Amino acid sequence: MTYFEWLKTQPADFQDAAIGPKRGELLRNGGISAERFSELNLNRNFEPRTLKEMRKLEPLAFKRAGIGLAVSGAFNPNSDRAEAHAARYYEAIRNRTSDNDVKNIAKNINFPEKVVKDIKNQVFLNEHDLGDGDFGRFTPDYDMAQAMKRHGYDYMTAHDIANAYHNWESEIKKLKERGN
Q1: Up-side HSE of residue 45: CA atoms within 13 Å toward CB?
Q2: Helix ranges (DSSP H) in 66-141
Q3: How far is CA 28 from CA 15, 32, 34, 70, in A?
Q4: Beta strands in the chain (DSSP E)
Q5: Partners of residue 129 on adjacent β-strands
Q6: What are the pLDDT digits (tens) for 123-142?
Q7: Between 98 and 178, whose confidence is greater?
Q8: 106: helix, coil or strand?
Q9: CA–CA distances in Å: residue 125 to residues 63, 64, 128, 134, 166
Q10: How many CA atoms lie within 13 A of 159 on its CB side?
Q11: Distance between CA atoms of 174 and 81, rounded to whole angstroms?
Q12: In the chain, domain spans
């Protein structure tokens, strides 16, 4: 098994952290084999190709993956694509078998691990009364998914830190009110 064959079996957030979000999206949704992806990444001198160079070689793969080469690379947070991305990221969080993300976030924002784990459970894992007697998990939110990703990977913005403290203080208050 090659590296890219193995990488294709990993969660989307891991792929994005390993090779970048656009290359990760291309690997997942470009409709090309791991072998072809590997060929696209390096030129004949085994030097990395830019995304622009890769696109010239496989424009259809970029189109299938929905990858433009805009400078920011950001999704419109209200788009179907952002909604699908949030759903994939929430599922990746829900399928994690370790608490490494909890440890990283706690360290990054200087919160106790137990508090971060409780918040993670409340936001991503626990079922809630959604009204009219329906119970379920919260609907995936693109902005929350992106903030979670930044919190866990050491590149939070000042806005993330302020937002984390504000939102998570509210969550802590709710946990305390319930006696947790």
Answers
A1: 3
A2: 80-95, 100-109, 113-120
A3: 9, 9, 10, 19
A4: 128-131, 134-136
A5: 135
A6: 888 888 777 778 888 888 77
A7: 98
A8: helix
A9: 34, 31, 10, 16, 21
A10: 5
A11: 32
A12: 3-65, 80-177
Q: In whole angstroms, how large is the CA radius of gyration of the chain? A: 19
Residue with tokens 């976030």: 105
Q: Model-level pTM? A: 0.47
- Please choose, from the candidates 118, 104, 113, 121, the residue with its C-alpha nearest in 3D space to the C-alpha of residue 155: 104
* 145 Cβ neighbours under 8 A, 6+ residues apart: 85, 86, 89, 90
User: Sign of the CA dihedral 157, 161, 167, 172?
Assistant: positive
96-117 pLDDT, tens digit per residue, is 888 888 887 778 777 788 888 8
Taking the alpha carbons of 62, 66, 67, 70 in that order, is the dihedral positive or negative?
positive
